Automatic annotation (TrEMBL):
Keyword line: Acyltransferase, Cell shape, Cell wall biogenesis/degradation, Peptidoglycan synthesis, Transferase
Pfam families referenced in this protein's UniProt entry, alphabetically: Big_10 (PF17964), YkuD (PF03734)
Protein name: Ig-like domain-containing protein
PANTHER family linked to this entry: L,D-TRANSPEPTIDASE, L,D-TRANSPEPTIDASE YCIB-RELATED
Residues forming the catalytic site: H339, C358
Pathway(s) this gene product operates in, as recorded in its UniProt entry: Cell wall biogenesis; peptidoglycan biosynthesis
Segments forming domain L,D-TPase catalytic: 259-390
Keyword Cell wall biogenesis/degradation among record annotations: yes
Amino acid sequence: MNGQPISGTTTGRRRRGTRLGALATGALLLVLTACGGGDADGGAKGGKDGAGSGAGKQEIAASQAVVTIAPKDGADAVATSGALKVTAQQGKLTSVTVSDTEGHKVEGKVSADGSTWEPLGHLSASTQYKVHAIAKDAEGRESAKDTTFSTLTPKNTFIGHYTPENGQTVGVGMPVSINFTRGITDPEAVERAIKVTAEPSVEIEGHWFGNDRLDFRPENYWAAGTKVTVQLNLDGVEGRPGVYGTQKKTFSFTIGRRQVSTVDASAKTMKVERDGKIIKTLPITAGAPSTTTYNGQMVISEKYKVTRMNGATVGFGGEYDIKDVPHAMRLSTSGTFVHGNYWASASTFGSANVSHGCVGLRDTRGAGDSTTPAAWFYDRSLIGDVIVVKNSKDKQIQPDNGLNGWNMSWSEWKS
């Protein structure tokens, strides 16, 4: 009885060992079979056609396309115009991205043959840019290049002082007028950097008065309710050799109701027209025979409840110096106003022209009486409203004397 259990136990151990050995041998054969790829013929074919062909497909041949970026990587004090260009040889550009450190992208265009990319405008000054460009060769293989460069920091700069103000509601005659702090010798570059749009859309053109003022307007007065947006992208524009703009700003304004008033210097009246209807006819006094009022279309550019008018500042010597002229609205740079007049008798208005070239309306001293013709007109006028003077024995006002470009034909304006 004692021998049987020992014999049975010994037999069981031998069988387990035999099974493990057989399993190990089977696993080894399985591994060898898997590595061999099958029978001898199949292994030969796999090595020749399968392994050889597969190695050819996995091998990555270098793209023949060569991307070149100017300026070179790490360049500093790069010009804001004319320096940036991306090219591809033995391939075509498929993607070019240029952006500053804040993520603002530079618009550009790839040539029709895919060989070059150039920006559509200038770059900003004192700015770091990153360039990422990709090209493909004839086999569709990509080649990429990345560079970083910084633009110059100008020593001499200019800005543009503009009117009207952001968010302002103005009359239908209001142009966009920009006065530059330095004379511009490359007006095309500066004008390209300024975009003026309107909603509803209308054609808008710019016109230079000298080398330091640029105005924009449509062919006819703005439509009431129009929203005008101005984008000044002057940062980096070389307005004259070595002098660069510094502004990058967007502002907008709204055109209010349509009000156009007509002064008849002969009849000595002013008819106020609002949205196509005459709402008031006011008696006025225009320029005296020796100091006549300009004819033409004039735009209100400033309003003062009370202001000082000194003849010495506009070429009239010491003929007058009135420290408290009420309800004054400027029509020209040279000193033409429509304003209240408290020093002439009430009978003067509508019967005699006695001013030094301005249009006078009856008023009281101090501008405190809201019932006078001058106060009535002042309270109902906007900067940008148009006042047309006719039948005066004077010449037409010059277009650059105030915001008065409407005195030019559309063809003259665009030339």
